[in-house]
Amino acid sequence: MTAELIRNPLREWQRRIWAHAVIDDTTPSHDELSREADRAERAAIHARQAANRAIAYTRRRPSRYANASYELLLPEQDPAGKVSRWRAHGPRALLIAGPARTGKTTAAYAIANDTHAHDQWVMVWTAPDLSAALKPDGEPFAYDYATGCDLLVLDDLGRERVTDWWLEQLQRILDERCAQERRLVVTCNTTGPDEGDDRSPAEVAYAQLVTRYGHPIVERLIDGGGVLVLDGPAVRQVVTEW
Ligand SMILES: Nc1ncnc2c1ncn2[C@@H]1O[C@H](COP(=O)(O)OP(=O)(O)OP(=O)(O)O)[C@@H](O)[C@H]1O
Ligand SMILES: [Mg+2]
User: Which of 37, 40, 144, 153 has its CA 20 to 30 A from that of 188?
Assistant: First the structure.
């Protein structure tokens, strides 16, 4: 097996050495060879970068969401297939709102895991973690990763301290992703309409977000999509025997 692995890459070179043992019109020029070598080197760098990003995704992912998938979601966690169809057919951004423990993070990770399985670069941060990562003593490339990845999942928006500094960071990241048409999934806790309030849960969630972040940011969070409210029963696994 090992010998085969070593022999295979060499076979191509053996063929090429023999093919060019005699110099004729088909022999590549020095420039052609160095361009080909550059291309091969760039491809190798990209492959290594993609592998490192994939490893980082699985290493950072909390184990409870490792198996999150569309099949696992309850019908009320995937209303009208809006979660399971989003990656292939949805608008650029998806905002998943709703009360505590309704499966927002699980739905977001179902999308993240699927996107990761399609060899795309996925980064997931909770809003408090991204805020900490962007600080001078945080993660060195947080801003570049947050703007450059294929899919950014921002979990638990609203749990972080909303300061002017954070609003500015958020606006810059969202603007950049919007300009580059990079995809975005955001989850946030919102409460449903009070009794007597005849607005829809999505309208109420939208209004709560606007109060917290202002119109420009919320428009970029939604960007042509809408607010998907998960307001099914809270999922609680109560352990009675241990
Ligand atoms: N379809 C499901 N099948 C099995 N377990 C689930 C399912 N949906 C959610 N859970 C579990 O229920 C718990 C709550 O789910 P999740 O964290 O996704 O909810 P959330 O709405 O993000 O909660 P929070 O408001 O606390 O952020 C988690 O432990 C999760 O693993
Ligand atoms: Mg959550």
Answer: 144
Q: Count of residues for the chain?
A: 242
The H-assigned helical ranges of 24-160 are: 30-60, 86-89, 104-117, 127-134, 142-148
Grade residue 9 by pLDDT with cuts at 50, 70 and 90: low
| Ligand 1 contact via 106 beta carbon (within 6 Å) | yes
Q: How do the domains of the chain map onto residue ranges?
A: 61-229
Ligand 1 pocket residue status of 207, Cβ below 6 Å: no
Q: Is the CB of 53 under 6 A from ligand 1?
A: no
What pLDDT was estimated at residue 80?
93
Q: Whose CA is nearest to atom 31 of ligand 1?
A: 64
Q: What are the tens digits of pLDDT across the range 14-39?
A: 777 777 777 888 788 888 888 988 99
